Amino acid sequence: MKPAILVTGGAGYVGSHTVASLLERQDATDYDIVVVDNLSNAYRAEGRKKPECLRIIEEMTDKTIHFYEVDIRDATGLSRVFENHNIDCVIHFAALKAVGESVQKPLEYYQANITGTCTLFDVMRKYGVYKLVYSSSCTVYGEPEKLPLNESHPTGQGLTSPYGKSKYFCEEIMKDICRSDKKWMVISLRYFNPVGAHHSGRIGEDPSGIPNNLMPFIAQVAVGRLKELLVFGNDYPTADGTGVRDYIHVEDLAEGHVKAIKLFHQPGFSGFHAVNLGTGTGYSVLQMVKAFEVACGRQIPYKIVGRRDGDIAANYADVSLSHRLLGWRAIKTLEDMCADTWRWQSNNPDGFKCS
């Protein structure tokens, strides 16, 4: 069988854009793309076998995606995938991912993110697959001791949410299995705040319910789906009092995963490696609102409300290691992020339901 790349959570926001990036490459015919997803945050039209985002990617690339509706906590279902395909490496996105929600639903986050990840590792080991790119997060750093954040910054200290703790715990598990068995190769990509959409405007972020992340919230207000943006706190020690984050275009982020896979083919590469993916520049919530108003040509009404549990004042990345190790750097601008988000949302005001 042809070698395959397994993408868990590949019908989600970052996962689907990474699938698109993999299939848009010139060497895409050298491997199969296999996606597993429980569709907890993806839309599938009635009567269709695949979620809309994957169906559209197949249309755009004229390539086939092998899809399985499987929860990563289902060892039997995962084993069936490994039996059916010659899995060479895994890109692991599948997880619950909202900081604020995790404070309200910690058990659900630990079950999905930690138990699910351990089940995946167990099945990988059973089938002799030891190469993994992990979707981690800057939340593992907790409250920053200094900015910008580099990979030597302590992790696991002062973590503010069960989401961040789950990512930290998973990284610690990966370090342990890499120490115990030298066959493992793990690249943990600690990314900052993904935004934007595919440049075609055909796939983008389509969260279920009220968005937990800033950019889809702004976009849904701009398109009229929501009345106003809620800004969680304006009393942070930042220039305008609102939270500052390092926003990175999702297509840049997807390319970072593609670059990471190439490291597996370098002689002598092994063990656990953590790498930041960001732009190195922080923008406040109100700066993002103003930039999006320029992109869409409309005013974005917003209301200041209290701080959200689990949020911190500011974080942005030192990305020098990603330049050296991966040969990667973010190339899309804030204007690109806003323009591509607006193209996606204005073309698809109800998300994938109207695509």
Show the helix and strand layout:
Blueprint: E1 3-8, H1 13-23, E2 32-37, H2 52-61, E3 65-69, H3 75-84, E4 86-92, H4 99-104, H5 106-126, E5 131-137, H6 162-180, E6 185-191, E7 193-195, H7 214-222, E8 229-232, E9 244-245, E10 247-249, H8 250-263, E11 271-277, E12 283-284, H9 285-296, E13 302-305, H10 320-326, H11 334-347
Parallel strand pairs: 1-2, 1-4, 2-3, 4-5, 5-6, 6-11, 7-10, 8-13
Antiparallel strand pairs: 9-12
User: Structural class of the helix and strand makeup?
Assistant: alpha/beta
* Mean pLDDT score: 96
Range of strand content:
15-25%
SS element count, helices:
11
What gap, in angstroms, lies between the N and C termini? 34 Å
Order of helical and strand elements:
EHEHEHEHHEHEEHEEEHEEHEHH
